[in-house]
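Weekly modeling sync, notes
Attendees: S.R. (lead), two postdocs, one rotation student

Agenda item 3: backlog of single-chain predictions. S.R. asked that every request posted to the team notebook include the full sequence so nobody has to chase files. The rotation student volunteered to paste the first one in as an example of the format we agreed on. Action items at the bottom.

Example entry:
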Amino acid sequence: MSLPKYKRALLKISGEALAGPDGYGINADVIKSVAGEIKSAHLHNIQLGVVIGAGNIIRGVAAAAQGMDRASSDYMGMLATCINALALQDALENLGVQTRVQSAIEMAQIAEPYIRRKAVRHLEKGRIVIFAAGTGNPYFTTDTAAALRGMEINAEVILKATKVDGIYDKDPNKFSDAIKIESISHHEALSQSLKVIDSTAISLCMDNKMPIVIFQMMKKGNILDVLKGETVGSIIHS
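Predicted structure, as returned to the notebook:
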């Protein structure tokens, strides 16, 4: 059994992917599958923090485009991430994995407040820490929240699990001639305006020399393979 390349990582899960074929809400089979993949990494003594998006419930930018106040719509999105975080916590604990949910917005009845030192301590004790409510501020995406939390917990890599199997020069769902980019620098990713991850998150990772791996979430074994250092998806590096 090969040893993992990374001992501590931050996993960003797309909210949209949690909806599965339903297109909206939380698909029970998908959340169980994701929990199983996280458990397999956890069994290799990998310390894992998780940030989940809210695209399966509401997207702040989309709501703002329909006339809603941007700050209000972003706060609604933060609350939606808490729903997803609790769903993942339940799925993981049903598999016997200890977890903690920490929220950037205080809601004592359902989650701990986000405290960096406490989060690191949970990781050291072998718990999965699920970070909810983004950064706690509007105008920042959950991609940026993942990059920020990754820096704060001293993760070695940011993993972004999406519906596609890496970075392409254009949307592979719309263009059959889309070309996959297996490796690219932070600077190149910014200059080419690739939409696979938020530019603020890329900038933050570039400044701190944090690698980002983009890969397909629903392919069995992908999370563990990435953490072992195998070539999966695409990598953005310094």
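Discussion: group reviewed the output briefly. The domain at 8-237 is CATH 3.40.1160.10 (Carbamate kinase).
Action items: rotation student to repeat for the remaining queue; S.R. to check formatting next week.
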